[in-house]
Amino acid sequence: MADMKFTYVATCQNYGNQKRSGDRRATDILNLMVNNPSLRVAYIDEVEEREGDKVQKVYYSVLIKSVDNLDQEIFRIKLPGPAKLGEGKPENQNHAIIFTRGEALQTIDMNQFFNCRVRFHYGHPDVFDRIFHLTRGGFSKASRGINLSEDIFAGFNSTLRRGNVTHHEYIQVGKGRDVGLNQISLFEAKVACGNGEQTLSRDIYRLGHRFDFFRMLSFYFTTVGFYVSSM
Fold first, then answer.
1. Are 167 and 107 in contact, with CB atoms under 8 Å apart?
2. Strand extents, DSSP E, 22-175
3. CA-to-CA distance for 195 and 62, rounded, in angstroms?
4. Minimal CA–CA distance to 189: which of 148, 139, 156?
5. How far is the CA of 230 from the CAs of 53, 133, 200, 224, in angstroms?
6. Glycosyl transferase domain: from which residue to which, for each copy (predicted)?
7. Cα–Cα distance between 97 and 155 in angstroms, integer?
8. Per-residue pLDDT band at 226 (split at 50, 70, 90)
């Protein structure tokens, strides 16, 4: 019943290159698929194709599964060019969305961040209304630089288009992080840079003009207000 209802798609852009070069990580991914028959892996394949006298690189999104301890191709979709136009992580997510099915899509990441109907970050994991988001610009902003924190823009996008974000917290496993001063400093810098970029974006400007007073207070404190208070 679970296999009928759910599909698991893991995205690994470099699987094709890793397999060709005999990288151990490709073997590990294959072992995961063999041990978990429901698992599907999406990757980007770079192929050199000849057209007349010209040899050119062609790019495909490919979905595979394991059959008899080997990987078998299910779908291959030609891309208009190289997929990495923006940040690597959101591009990795965007290229695999076409291989998902159904009305709900759960995005699983490894972070935790939430607040009062002002919760935009999908690393917890979140369940998206797939059809709503596919027709409104996708799940991840992938433009380089400004959308470094690509996941929070999915929430901005949803809220600006009159979507709703609800929060339900179930803690099953606590995640351990490296708590050395250097690691904490790097992490804080990453989050602060991401917030600076969000503050410059048109998404924040538009939300700022549309929220009611109380949501605006929550929104302010969970974005730039936190840094103003800290300073």
1. no
2. 39-51, 54-67, 70-78, 104-107, 126-129
3. 34
4. 148
5. 62, 35, 20, 10
6. 1-112, 116-231
7. 17
8. confident
DSSP 3-state percent helix, strand, coil across the chain (nearest 5): 40, 20, 40
Count Cβ neighbours within 10 Å for each residue of 149-164 and write b for 16 or more, e otherwise.
Answer: bbbbbbbbbbbeeeee
Nearest to 15 by CA among 40, 38, 36: 40
Cα dist from 52 to 56, 59, 60, 80, 143, whole Å: 11, 18, 21, 19, 35
pLDDT in tens, 94-153: 788 889 888 888 877 644 444 476 667 655 567 888 888 888 767 777 676 666 677 788
Quick: pLDDT tens for 200-224. 888 889 998 999 999 899 888 888 8
Q: How far is CA 80 from the centre of its chain?
A: 21
pTM to 2 decimals? 0.72
Q: How many CA atoms lie within 13 A of 124 on its CB side?
A: 19
DSSP secondary structure letter of residue 52: T
Strands 70-78 and 104-107: unpaired
Long-range Cβ pairs for the range 169-178 (8 Å, 24+): 169/114, 175/110, 175/112
Q: Are 43 and 25 in contact (CB under 8 A)?
A: no
Contact 204, 156 (CB under 8 A): yes
AA identity, residue 140: S
